[in-house]
Structures are given as C-alpha cells and as structure tokens.
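User: Hi! Is it possible to get a structure for several chains at once, not just one? Here's what I have:
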Amino acid sequence: MNARQILVKIPFSYIFRNLWTRKVTTLLTAGGMALVVFVFAAVLMLDAGLKHTLVSTGSYDNAILLRQSSQTEIQSSVYRDQASLIETLPGIARDAEGNPQVSKEVLVLTQIPKRGSDKPQNVVVRGLPPIGVKLRPQVKLTDGRMFRVGSSEIVTGRSIAEGFEGVGIGQRLRFAGREWTVVGHFDGGKSGFDSEIWGDVEQMMQAFRRSTYSSVIVKLQDRDEFANLQQHINDDQRLILDVKREPAFYEEQSSSLSTFISVLGITLSVIFSIGAMIGAMITMYAAVANRTGEIGTLRALGFRRSSILAAFLAESVLLALVGGAAGLILASFLQAFTITTMNWQSFSQLAFGFYLTPAIVVKTMLFSVFMGLVGGFLPSVQAARLEIVDSLRAA
Amino acid sequence: MHYLRLVFKNIFRHTLRSLLTIVGLVVAILAFGLLQTVVNAWYAGADMASANRLVTRNATSLVFSMPAYYRERIKAIDGVTAVAISNWFGGVYKDQTFKNFFATFAVDSDVFFDLYPEFKVKPDELLAFKRDQRGCMVGRLIADQHGFKVGDVIPMTSPIYGGGTWEFTVRGIYEPKDQTTVTRQMYFHWDYLNEQMKKRFPKRAEFAGVFIVQIADGSRAAEVSQAIDKEFRNSLAETLTETEKAFSLGFVAQTEAIVTAVKIVSFVVIVIIFAVVANTMAMTARERLAEYATLKALGFPPVFVASLIFGESVMISALGGAIGIALTFPVAAGFKAMMGTMFPVFYVTGQTVAMQATAALAVGVLAGVLPSIRAANVKIVDGLRYAG
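Assistant: Yes, the chains can be modeled jointly so their relative placement is included. Here is the combined structure:
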C-alpha cells in the first residue's frame, strides 16, 4: 500500500476533535440547528398525530351513511324511515339473533367551559344506541359505567374528562334544557371519540328536539361488500344518501386542518433553516480562517484538495447531525402533550397528540444533513482552493 | 463620535461574517414580524367589532337556530334600535379549498348595511341589491380575488342548505372603511333563502341563525343583553346574547391552541438568531483578544474595551433589525396576495414593528454581554501572549 492511498482520507477523529476544541461555538451553532429541527419535527409529528387520531376513529369494516352532499355528521340528517330501510339492505352484518349491526345516531354540538378558562368551547354530543358502542371496539370504559338506555345519563371521552370543567363522575351537566348525570369515562384509544360525550340516542333527540338522525353507521358482513352496498343505495330512490367507508370519511374531516398545519409548518421550517444554515456557514468560515496554516500543512503532507473539501463538509454535517439529534430528542418529549383545537370542518373541538414515526425520524435527519451540507459547502470549497504556499505563510 | 466610527469599521473587518450575520438577523426579524401579523390577522373579526352591536344566538350552541319571529320581540326591547337576521349559508364557490373560501350570509337586506357603517356601499348599488331578490353584495377582497363585477352570476352550493346550485347576481361591491375592516363576505337576501326553504324543506323555513342587534348606547350592552335573554327564557330556543367582540373572540378561543403555537414559534426564531449572533460575537472577541490587551496596555479603561465589542453586537443587530423591519411591509403584502382570502385582514401594525425592534435590540445586547465581559477582564500579559 503506498503512501498516497493511506493519505487520501483525513481521519474522522480529526474532524470530531476540531468540533470538540471549540465547544462554545459548536454548542451555539448546533443549538440553533436543534431549534430549527425541533420546529420541523414538531410540525410533522402534529400532522401525523392528527392523521393517526382520525384513522383510528374509523374502522375499515364500518360504513357511514349521511344525507347526500353533506360533508359532516353535524350537517347531515337521515329520516327515520330511511334509517329503517337501511337495516334491510343486503351486505350488512347480523348478530347471532339476526339483528342488523346498524347504529342510528344523532350528533349535536354543545358548549362547555374548558378547564382553567371561562370560555366555552364546542363539544360534540353523540346520541347512540347500545349497538353503536359495540361497533367501536377501540372504546373502553375506564371509570364508572355505560349510560343506560332511556335515562338522562352520559359518559365522556378521555380528553373531555381531562380538559373540561364539571364532567367528573356524579356531576351534572346542563344542556338542551336538561340536567345530564355523568356516569362514566371512556378511553377512545386516541381516536376522535376521546373528544366526545355519549348518551342515549332517543333521549338526545327529544332533548334537542330533533326528529331526524344525523348519521347511520353499519357494519359490513364482509369488507368487500362495500361496493355492493353502495350500489344498492344509489339504486334506491328513497335513499338520498352518501355512503363512505369510515376511515375515508374521517380522513376527509381533517383535510383542511391537516393542510393548514403542514403548509404553516413547512413554511416556517424553510425560513428558520435559512437562519441555521447561515449560522453553520459563519462557523465553518471561521474554522477555515483559523486553520489556514493547518490546511497548508495537510496539503503539504500530501492530502488532496478533495480530501480537504470532504473533511470540512463532514465537519459541517457532523455539526448538523448533533443539532438534529438534539432537536429530535427534544421533540420526542412532545409526545406527552395533547393539543385541543377546533376542527373547522366539524366545527368542534378535537384533541390530538404528537406522534413520532420512523419516517419522521428519517425525514428530520435528512433535513439536518441538508442544512449541514448547504451551510458547509462554500467554506469547504474555500478551504480546498487554498494554495499550499500561501496558507503555510499565513500561519 | 470616534467611538461609533471605530465600532462601525470593526464590523467590516470580517465583511463576509458580518454580512452573513446581518442576513440571518434580517430573515429572523422578518419571520418574527410575519408571524406576529398572522396572529393579529386571527383577531381580525374581533378588532372590527362595534361596541354598539350585540349578537344573539341559540344558547345551546351556534349550530342551532332560532325562530325568525324572535326578531320582532327583540326589536321591542328597550334600548334596541335595529335587528337583522344573519344566517351562515356556508356557500362553496368552485371547490372547498382555503384559496376559494369566502364567508356567505343570508341577511335582512333592508337594514343590514345600516348596521355596518364600516362597509362603504354606493347608494345606487345598494338600491339595485334591495330590488333584486337573487342579488348579492360582495366585499372588495373577494371581488378582486375572483374578478367579480356588477352583473356577474356566482354559482354556489351549500352543504348546509342543500338544494343543488344556487345562483346569485352581483349587484354591488362594498369597500372597507379602513384596514381593520374584513371584506371577505358575500351577503344576499334572507327572504330569498327563506322562500326557497319553504318550497323545498318547509320544516326548515322561518329560522334565524343569529340576530345582529344594534343598541343605542354601547355602555348599556350588558343590561340589554340580559333583557333579551330573559325574554326567551324557558322557551324552545333559549338565547345567549353577547357583544359582537365577545362573540368573535369566542371563535378565536376555539382555535387558541394554534394561535399559541404560532406565538411560541415566533419567539423560537428569535432564540435561533440569538445563537447565531452570540456565536459571531464570541468568535470575534476571541480573535481580537491581543488587540484588547494592547488597548489596555495603552491605558484605555476596561469599560471602553468592553463597549467596543458590545457596541458592535448592538450595531449589527440594529442594522439587521432595521432591514428586517423595512422588508416586512413588502413581504407581508406579497404574502397576503399569495394566500388569497385566507387572511382577510393582513397588515403590519405599529405594535409589531415595536416588538421587532425590541427583539433585535435584545438579541444584540444579550449576544454582546459575555464577549464584552471577557474583553474587559482580559489580562494584558495573557492577551498579548494570545496570538488569536
């Protein structure tokens, strides 16, 4: 092995130690990058959290029926006779006694004050029959018991129980001209149901003076029966209804909020990353200026221009990776938090968390490598273009 | 004077580094200003609210309506001068994207524009609107966005009221009174909506979404609100009356988490740029230690030496801040044009500029503290030995 081959690469430890000696500068530059990465990752996690919440709200085995062209359950109304007709359609699952797995539900909004503020927020109240509870296997009772049919009892989702006033077990809520007793809390498995209040459908309809249902949820006999069911509904003149698979429906519900979060977040990340890249550039230019003599020595020893370029680029990328990892670790703590905000499409409060996926980890690290490459490129080129004689004289 | 010149010349000893730092500052201050403007835009509706207007809605929640005959009973209440029904039509023009979104209301056309003096209407256009049952009035912002002219027909669908395509003829375009006025709404006749409902879904006719109530004396708002709600207590649809401002702020509160996130993030960018500037100043001070020692050896007091680096930090930040603030105005205008009607009111307030200036100054001061202490404390012997 000749000397040339050995000397082609500058050892990694040299690169690493250069960062280590200038601790304050490294810390400040990496810190700036960490914050940018933190914002970038937080936005992606929030969007993922929103999607996760809405996807887990729906089941692929269920279909939802709404009045034609209404986008949300709030806007929709399904007449009683239509709802009864739906029960007779083919392709709908039945239990051992032959009862159709159909849940006729009513959805209304009421206002409850958020904990720690006197500002009332829109909250979804869902009236449903016992079969409706069974159609959502992800919903588990955590405290108390389920509401009883025919009574003014309600149960609340986890986010409501934690985030709103006056919803402890045994407490009474007043809406629609009645007092409702909270008898239980349920965990919706991080789905949208966590942000809902459930009660008996007939009681809710009477209290809110509604004569029509909002939506009808059906369980399919077989997931492939969907097209068949859709065909039957379209062919029946009496059923002026839209039918959608539940996951598709819930994804539509969040599309505008999701677009908003990602557009805002990506714009911010791009602007912020300019600041961080400039920080990296300043640091790397200073590193080149401080080590001019050193660079000359390395060149004199036989290292090539390309090796110098690679070494400085690697140093910049390493700096960015340190920042990126720190930002990502910081962002991962966000998973403990939940955000409650209004979903414009359904006009009600929706709670969702930050959700870290492997794809986000990869994207975030790529983003920081990119920042390091862009920030370090020009200084590295400058370092590589130094003439041996000049740089040795500069020292 | 000499001091300032010295500081200024020092900045350009490392032209590239100083320029990069200033560019970073410009970007950060610009971003900070834009984010603050976005937050302000969120409160646009509340800012334009008048103290003389109340909003009466169904007490259960906004999605429930009230019988239209409430209008006459509210009008009879002492202190009320005018009442207009306003129904959220939820019209969809073209498609459901933010870009094409504008608010659509069915209102009591004969009084509505009297209640809103901030909408400047031409008398002949208003008359033409009142005469045409299928006419509508559009705001300047949507007229510009979609190129609507008087006489154009706007086809819309409504997921709330259904009934296929509704067509409205533009009879007038109203102008904003000042920067705070939101002109992203289209108004048409409530009577027309009601007639159509009677024909198609008789059960859903004769209902009002909210009542806009004008009162003679803004200081009696609380009293009149209570009187209105008392009028309908224990009825089928109990009411909740509040000032227009409280009503609008209620909407903002629903999306408070997003506003808070934007606010937090706007300060994060300041911290990021602080790290960059602090780094620049630390590097500069380190390189000039020998120089500081020389100055001290010549008899300059430590305070002077410290003020050199401190002044440089503040001056760089001031330069970056000033350029950033100057750029905020054209960029905000461009952003507004790009976002279409998503932010109906989007302008840079004096408060935002003040906050930007404060942030830039704070960055300069904080970034200068540590290096200047180091410069002041450098021992002459050590500093001279140090070949930066």
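Chain A touches chain B through 55 residues (CB under 8 Å). Residues 95-217 of chain A form one domain.

User: Great, thank you!
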